[in-house]
Amino acid sequence: MVHWWRQLGDSQLDKLIDAALAGNLDLRLAEARLRQARFSREQAEANLYPTLKATGDITQREIGGWGTGNQSSSTDLGAGIGSGGIGSTVAGTEYNAGFDAGWEVDLFGGNRRGIEAATADQDATEARLNNTRVSLAAEVARNYVEVRSYQRRLTIARDNLATQSDTLQITEWRYQAGLTTASDVEQARTNREQTRAGIPDLEVGQRTAENRLAVLLGRNPGDLHYELAEPRDLPALPATLATGIPADVLRQRPDVIAAERTLAAETARVGQKLAKRFPSLNLSASLNWYTFASSGITAAIQTVGASLATTLFDAGRLRTAVDIQSAVQEQALISYRNSVLTALEEVENALKSYAAGHERVDARRIAAGAAQNAAQLSRQRYEAGLADFEDVLITERTRLTAEDNLALAEAELRTSLISLYKALGGGWEETAGTSVSSNTEHRTPS
Predict the structure, then answer these.
(1) Helix, strand, or coil here: 172?
(2) What is the residue extent of each domain of the chain?
(3) Cα(213)–Cα(218) distance, rounded to whole angstroms?
(4) Among 67, 71, 175, 210, whose Cα sits 20 to 30 Å from the Cα of 361?
(5) Model confidence at 442: pLDDT above 80
(6) What's phi and psi for 100, nearest 5 deg?
(7) What is the pTM of this model?
(8) Is domain 4-61+92-437 annotated with CATH 1.20.1600.10?
(9) Which residues, at least 6 apart from 87, have a Cβ–Cβ distance to it below 8 Å?
(10) CA 116 to chain centre
(11) Which residues pair with 93 in a beta bridge?
């Protein structure tokens, strides 16, 4: 994954994203799923090879037989029985060891299709892991920008609160001197308190973004408050932006890659289901040794066999299984096509949003500068007795709104840049696409 966030020139953001990539719980879950997919592929690959089993047992046995006693008299059978003659038994231990081997010949490629499906599943899972990384980096950057934006808006609100407090004090002095009315004093107080009332909402917004950042890093909410307490400027914008071409986007986007590999897996499973409709050939072999301890007799038995089996009638069960898997494959194909269209849409929208964000910031910067000048002039005219107090109130409220809107626009511009990097599949190296200036409108290359 390209470390696109390093182009924003914010060392603290770099540390936060690195920490999130190391400690995020969703990412660790995706990594565990990838390990599972790898083991599943190894299991599928093992089906191509024979199975060898070893067996062994020990058995106590009694075997009856002809003894070696005095059997010279055909009528005196009792003497023979007592000395190991007719009807005698021999007790002993029998040892048995052997090996069994079996192998299903992959005549019609069912096992090979299973390996292809498992490999594609592994690739799709790995692509989803990469998509989680891309989304995580973008989410951390977005919330970091939000924290810095709230800090800037709080600074603007507090500066305006200080100015409005000064205006209230001046108005009270003028009232005491008989130069203005009590109504002007109350209007100045109303203006100040309205600004004060908006500050807690901004503080809550900042804390919410901080807590979200902490959770993204796998830490407890509130852990980052002191680390982010000192206000800093918003991350810088890169001078150029490598956007690539649409075909590169499709090769870069992890979600598109995951959809394509899922389609490949489901296609392979169609072949796997189809192979089950054809005969199966199994080869087997076994080798066993038997030893009777008391007699020292040893025997070896070996067998080799082959079996061919096929289904003659199953009421269409195997054929229906192929049809079901074909429908699953069709769904995967539709999902893949939809992911391609969605990727192109998101890139186009992000490009337009980023270009429009530059125009918005430029316009609001001019508006904020004009509002600041108007507020200073109206206050000076009021102090000189050349303007009504209403003009002061209007220009101060306009100044606060214009400066707050500028702070929002600059944060939204960074957010649109982050969305663009995410839409591009996690950013681009400069050599991977066409570099364009970040101060001009960005268009998708044709």
Answers:
(1) helix
(2) 4-61+92-437
(3) 9
(4) 210
(5) no
(6) -125, 135
(7) 0.79
(8) yes
(9) 64, 81
(10) 23
(11) 60
